[in-house]
Write a structure and sequence with these properties.
mainly beta, 0% helix
């Protein structure tokens, strides 16, 4: 099975940027569609962005225009560039892998998950 490890989270001021990384091991990243999800305390996990094996992308309306998802298959790494961060973006961000060709938005469509990385945005 593929193993996923996220990094790059932290505490930043509103308006700042962060770049999250998700490194895949044991299996090549190019086998999978990759997604980023986030979960705030007491809230359900929600879809943020996804990128297919062919590099098609899909974003939640709340982050479209601010966040950019990308992948570098040679490095077995998926990224989430987060710009113009808002306090409402505060959450644990997790990457996930799916064997689907398109970009699912449901958590149940993803087979493998990383442990998550905390992003906190202060006002």
């Amino acid at each position: 099975q593929v193993h996923l490890v996220e990094s790059g989270g932290g505490l930043v001021q509103a308006g700042a940027s962060l770049r999250l990384s998700c490194v895949a091991s044991r299996r090549p990243l190019n086998y999978y569609t990759m997604g980023w999800f986030r979960q705030a305390p007491g809230q359900e996990r929600e879809f943020v962005a996804g990128i297919s094996r062919g590099a098609s992308t899909h974003y939640a309306d709340s982050v479209k225009g601010r966040f950019i998802i990308s992948r570098d298959n040679a490095k077995n790494t998926a990224y989430l560039q987060m710009n113009s961060l808002k306090p409402e973006d505060t959450a644990v961000y997790s990457c996930a892998a799916s064997t689907g060709i398109a970009v699912p938005t449901k958590t149940s469509s993803y087979n493998y998950w990383g442990q998550g990385t905390q992003v906190t945005v202060s006002s």
